[in-house]
Known about the structure:
This protein is an alpha+beta fold. The chain has a single domain (4-146), classed as CATH 3.30.1330.200. It is 19% helix and 37% strand. It has 2 helices and 9 strands. The protein has a 5-stranded mixed β-sheet with strand order 2-5-4-6-7, with helices on one face. Strands 1-3-8-9 form a 4-stranded mixed β-sheet, with no helix packed on it. It is globular, with a radius of gyration of 14 Å. The protein starts with a strand and ends with a strand.
Amino acid sequence: MEKQHFINIGEYHVGNGSGTMVCRGLGSCVALFLYDRVTRVSGGAHIFLPEALNSNDKQVAAYLFQKVIDGMKELGADINRLRAQIIGGASVVKSNPMQIGERNIEKVKSLLLENKIFLATQDVGGDLSRSVMFDMDNGSVSIKHNVVK
């Protein structure tokens, strides 16, 4: 049976083996997955906030992004070969003036651009939450849109 790595809010995972990374219930959160096709090293993060609310906040985009990059490099990934996929960033709360989902998307995209990482796939925005599975063998994703009744 294939190993599943559940990435909860504010967590990340890196690996060079088989299995899947799973992020469930992505509302305004953004799941970021990076993959090196040569070494088959992958990394993922469940990003909760675009910026820190206080100095101890470790659930933010830049912190998690850097942890994933550093972990992948330690396993032999080359940042110049990485391909990114981002999922989530929905506006699930209609009257949210903070627009966390949109800000999460913008922040993750800016981090990818700053680091010259190609954004291969995105399923972002809208008003539906999502769950996603990332295949660590081949870098593919399977996305389920969660309809709230």
